[in-house]
Amino acid sequence: MANKKKVVVTGFEPFGDHAVNSSWVAVQELERLGLGEAVDLYVCEVPVEYQAVQCLLPSLWKEQQPQLVVHVGVSGLATTVTLEQCGHNKGYKRLDNCSFCPASQCCMENGPDCIKSVLDMETICGRVNESNMGITVSVSKDAGRYLCDYTYYTSLYLGRGRSAFVHVPPLGKPYSSQELGRGLQAVIQEMLTLLEGENTEGGDTHNRLCYHKH
């Protein structure tokens, strides 16, 4: 198939109390499951470092030319698979794995405060929960002002909103790696279905970007 859809999915390396990062474990499980014949899936592990993210993301978008980039991160507070609707530009004070944080405490000088994904996470959440797959999905509008939020904002900016962020709980709280992999697969398949719909309606996703100032 010449016109396979390219999807990039990333997880993060271990950090802090997370000696095993369930996000990368879940992404590796997803790689085993795949996203179906029509999708070319590319996965990679992202360092928990602001400067590494600034180098890695532009090259991912440029070299892979993906239809969609989905970043997955772990949240010690999460008990569900959580879909993040938007990324934030400011408030990055927490030190990364290299004991670094941006002097400006923001992703992009003069960038909009918040960028929303073109994907309606409420719709995706509803569809996956209705499928009764035994994994609960919820929606959040605050990705936490650390590497997760930082990565998401940068990716939304580079991809004109064609990005998504999924927070997963730590392993076994309550889901196994297999369950997290299945959950990611279901969520991303719904995301691709929604994007298909937008493309067939001929809507220009760029105009749907919400650059609102708080």
TrEMBL record:
GO terms for cellular component: cytosol. One of its GO terms (biological process) is proteolysis. The keyword Transcription does not apply. GO terms for molecular function: pyroglutamyl-peptidase activity. Keywords: Cytoplasm, Hydrolase, Protease, Thiol protease. It holds the Pfam family Peptidase_C15. The active site is at C148. Gene3D superfamilies: Peptidase C15, pyroglutamyl peptidase I-like. The keyword Metal-binding does not apply. It is found in: Cytoplasm. It is an enzyme of class 3 (hydrolase). Its main location: cytoplasm. Its EC number is 3.4.19.3. It catalyses: Release of an N-terminal pyroglutamyl group from a polypeptide, the second amino acid generally not being Pro. Belongs to the peptidase C15 family. PANTHER family: PROTEASE FAMILY C15 PYROGLUTAMYL-PEPTIDASE I-RELATED, PYROGLUTAMYL-PEPTIDASE I. Removes 5-oxoproline from various penultimate amino acid residues except L-proline. Monomer. This is Pyroglutamyl-peptidase I. It comes from Salarias fasciatus. The lineage of its organism: Eukaryota, Metazoa, Chordata, Craniata, Vertebrata.
